């Protein structure tokens, strides 16, 4: 009888343990990363009253007779299933999606947790604020690679991102092939045909002795209308005359006064020629030194202060001598023209250039005569404009229109139109090694040559020492063929103040999927697509990525990987031991941890700005609690019943 009391006690004790676990689960229903427990029971070995016997004779076998000794707690298991993730909006709150535990330590002890409610302390340590333990991971080197040691993660909140000098710039966007509505250069009935005012000389290629202020003062006198400005000559040595000419024309293209009015060329005699873009006797050109201590005029082989006039053109004038020809016509070049007679009737034709055969103004005029019919074409001796005379009446034809443009079929041919060349500028900031900002401007000017643009780069309004000008040549379909500096050098600019010079590779992006520099009939939109320089910056934000990488964002736009939060996985995570504060420690049952990066060594994923909630199922816990209560009550009833029986036994003596 006494045994039944003790048996009931085992039931009460076991159910009390189960109730403790249920109560603990319910108490931690809102504990971040909490894993619920589960109690399982097993019976206790019973007392054997009879072993039983086998069959003998006509007697059947008898079963063993055993009296149970009660129940015991077989195991208290931990449910390691994933809890729901709750968004908090706090960047340092972390949750593990999938397998893995965060690793925290205090320098002596290491623990593991699914509760990622971390924060940075004043020293930049990523800590568990409840325990003060530091989150463990790998710190990053300056090159972005990770150290192999597992250590406490520290992100200095006063960390600076050092400045980086610009070394590469990529341009992209469109250059309007129509010249912002101007179209290709065109000759019309308003075009003046004449020979330019020009000066030629055998130029020096070494200007290293000049100061940065040395320049060529150019004066254009057009019938008493004076245009005057100075072209800078960089103090450097040029490889050849073509490079020198490219530099001089680059200076013209950034000169608001002389742009479109003069041009430099290199002739077949090895000379450098400065000439006007308009012809006629009313145009005079003269040059002088801007700095009397630097004889630029002599270095270019020109005649100082001596005006050279232009001339009127005639039928015997070679076409390539005209001021209207920007780059010499070559065999096979076609001039196409179309017009309207005073009656409204249209006429059109083409002229094909051939050196020595059809290379004079008279040859071009004959083609116009043939297309129009019954007229004599010529040039007005006073104005240099195209005139037509009726062959029958001898009267001058008035009220007709004509437009003529070049179909460039030769290498580098071009003409000047009635309007100045279209240009487009883009600007960006570049940085030197100290992080100082400099303004880089790239100006594109439509060349007289079809599908070609000249570009000029200036830094802070000054001319770089090298690589400051070149050409962008496009294919007929509008895609970029080449983008080169005239001297094949990167852009070199001396910033001063003891700062190393800037050396920038200025390039235009390729045309894969039309993502680079293009030339279409669309508004010009060239801009800097990317550049690698930056100013110094301070840390303004820290983000933690899915793989645990801690990335710092700086005020200069740079981002750096500063460390990595590691995860630990176990062969049997249910074998971990609770040590309080949402922490676990390893045991022999759990095995040794495998510590590594998320999404690679450990398959779990880290979700920043979220926390894992408890995986306690309240509905299940309430049901378990009711069942446990009934079990406890039933076991208590066995004890009281056994006590009543003993009481009856004691009362037998009365």
Tell me what you see in this structure.
The chain is mainly β. The protein folds into 4 domains: 2-51 and 62-77 and 629-653, no CATH class; 85-162 and 538-612, no CATH class; 168-177 and 422-531, Sandwich (Tick-borne Encephalitis virus Glycoprotein, domain 1), CATH 2.60.98; 186-415, no CATH class. Strands 7, 8, 12, 13, 14, 41, 42, 43 and 46 form a 9-stranded antiparallel beta sheet that branches. Strands 15, 37, 38, 39 and 40 form a 5-stranded mixed beta sheet that branches. Strands 32-33-34-35-36 form a 5-stranded antiparallel beta sheet. Helix 1 runs antiparallel to helix 5.
Strand-helix topology:
Layout (H helix, E strand, L loop, with lengths): L1 H26 L9 E7 L3 E4 L14 E3 L3 E8 L6 E3 L5 E5 L3 E5 L4 E4 L2 E2 L1 E2 L5 E2 L6 E6 L11 E2 L7 E2 L6 E7 L11 E3 L5 E8 L13 E8 L2 E8 L8 H13 L8 E5 L5 E8 L3 E7 L6 H5 L7 E2 L1 E2 L12 E3 L6 E7 L5 E7 L8 H12 L2 E5 L6 E5 L10 E7 L6 E2 L7 E9 L5 E10 L5 E8 L9 E6 L5 E6 L5 E3 L8 E7 L8 E2 L8 E5 L5 E8 L4 E6 L4 E11 L7 E4 L2 E3 L8 E4 L7 E4 L1 E3 L5 H33 L4
Parallel strand pairs: 15-38, 15-39
Antiparallel strand pairs: 1-4, 2-3, 5-48, 6-9, 6-47, 7-8, 7-12, 7-43, 10-11, 12-13, 12-43, 14-41, 15-40, 16-30, 17-21, 17-24, 18-19, 18-22, 20-21, 22-23, 25-31, 26-27, 26-30, 28-29, 32-33, 33-34, 34-35, 35-36, 37-38, 41-42, 42-43, 43-46, 44-45
Helix pairs in contact: 1-5
């Amino acid at each position: 009888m006494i045994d039944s009391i003790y048996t009931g006690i085992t039931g009460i004790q076991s159910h009390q343990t189960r109730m403790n676990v249920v109560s603990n689960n319910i108490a931690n229903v809102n504990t971040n990363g909490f894993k619920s427990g589960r109690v399982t029971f097993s019976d206790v070995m019973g007392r054997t009253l009879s072993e039983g016997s086998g069959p003998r004779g006509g007697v059947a076998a008898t079963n063993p007779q055993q009296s149970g000794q009660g129940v015991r707690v077989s195991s208290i298991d931990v449910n390691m299933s994933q809890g729901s993730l709750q968004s908090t909006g706090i960047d340092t709150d972390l949750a593990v999606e999938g397998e893995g535990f965060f690793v925290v330590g205090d320098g002596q002890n290491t623990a593991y947790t699914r509760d990622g409610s971390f924060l940075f302390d004043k020293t930049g340590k990523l800590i568990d604020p409840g325990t003060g333990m530091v989150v463990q991971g790998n710190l990053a080197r300056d090159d972005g690679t990770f150290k192999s040691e597992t250590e406490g993660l520290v992100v200095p909140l006063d960390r600076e991102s050092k400045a980086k000098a610009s070394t590469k710039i990529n341009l992209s966007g469109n250059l309007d092939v129509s010249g912002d509505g101007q179209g290709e250069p065109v000759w019309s009935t308003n075009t003046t045909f004449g020979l330019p005012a020009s000066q030629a000389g055998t130029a020096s290629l070494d200007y290293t002795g000049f100061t940065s202020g040395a320049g060529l003062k150019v004066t254009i006198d057009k019938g008493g209308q004076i245009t005057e400005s100075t072209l800078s000559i960089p103090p450097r040595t040029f490889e050849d005359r073509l490079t020198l000419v490219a530099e001089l024309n680059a200076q013209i293209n950034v000169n608001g006064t002389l742009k479109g009015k003069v041009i430099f060329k290199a002739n077949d005699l090895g000379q450098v020629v400065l000439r006007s873009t308009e012809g006629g006797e009313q145009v005079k050109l003269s040059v002088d030194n801007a700095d009397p201590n630097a004889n630029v005029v002599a270095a270019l082989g020109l005649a100082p202060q001596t005006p050279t006039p232009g001339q009127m053109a005639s039928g015997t004038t070679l076409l390539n001598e005209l001021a209207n020809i920007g780059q010499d016509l070559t065999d096979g070049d076609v001039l196409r023209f179309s017009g309207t007679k005073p009656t409204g009737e249209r006429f059109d034709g083409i002229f094909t250039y051939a050196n020595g055969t059809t290379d004079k103004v008279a040859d071009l005029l004959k083609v116009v005569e043939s297309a129009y019919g019954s007229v004599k074409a010529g040039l007005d001796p006073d104005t240099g404009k195209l005139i037509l005379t009726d062959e029958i009446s001898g009267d001058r034809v008035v009220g007709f229109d004509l437009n003529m443009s070049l179909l460039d079929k030769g290498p580098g041919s071009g003409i000047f139109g009635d309007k100045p060349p279209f240009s487009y500028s883009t600007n960006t900031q570049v940085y030197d090694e100290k992080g100082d900002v400099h303004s880089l401007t790239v100006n594109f000017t439509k060349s007289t040559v079809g599908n070609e643009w000249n570009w000029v780069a200036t830094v802070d309004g000054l001319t770089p020492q090298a690589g400051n000008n070149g050409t962008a040549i496009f294919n007929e379909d509008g895609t970029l063929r080449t983008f080169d500096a005239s001297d094949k050098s990167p852009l070199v600019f001396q910033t001063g103040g003891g700062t190393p010079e800037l050396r920038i590779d200025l390039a235009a992006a390729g045309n894969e999927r039309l993502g680079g520099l293009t030339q279409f009939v669309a508004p010009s939109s060239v801009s800097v697509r990317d550049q690698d320089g930056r100013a110094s910056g301070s840390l303004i934000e820290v983000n933690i990525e899915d793989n645990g990488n801690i990335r710092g964002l700086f005020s200069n736009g740079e981002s750096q990987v500063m460390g990595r939060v590691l995860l630990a996985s176990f062969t049997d995570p249910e074998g971990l031991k609770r040590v309080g504060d949402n922490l676990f420690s390893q045991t022999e049952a759990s095995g040794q941890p495998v510590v590594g990066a998320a999404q690679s060594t450990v398959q779990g994923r880290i979700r920043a700005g979220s926390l894992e909630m408890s995986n306690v199922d309240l509905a299940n816990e309430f049901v378990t609690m009711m069942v446990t209560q009934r079990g406890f009550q039933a076991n208590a009833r066995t004890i009281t019943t056994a006590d009543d029986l003993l009481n009856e036994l004691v009362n037998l003596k009365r």
